[in-house]
Amino acid sequence: FTIGILTGLVCIGFNKDGWWFSLVFAPKNIPSVNRPFLFLIELLSFFMRIFSMSIRLFSNMVAGHSLLHLLSEFINFIINLSFGKTFCIIISVFPIIILYGWVLFELFVAFLQAYVFVLLYLLYLSDVNKSH
What we know:
The protein is mainly α. It has helices at residues 2-17, 35-79, 85-91, 93-128.
């Protein structure tokens, strides 16, 4: 998905400005000796920010799902104890409440991550549409 966004941003930039789009990667008012090095650094940062965005989204999703899995396994373990079904069900009420609260929190995080993803995409798009 992020590869498509990166490809779209580059296509929009080249479609709008042609080869002048590459000036986005060349900072102004720098010595000509440093220009090739800074061009490579800016080009690398342009491509890496899309990948860092996808890694952040992936790690947030994995962390939330892992904790949900651990909580559900803990509740399953408590319910399957051999003390007696009514006692185990009474004990498991609090972890079940925590589990449902965590599901609601994960929904909030999902909407927040979608908001951040769109906001960063629009920020990257504004960088591409900047006049040179």
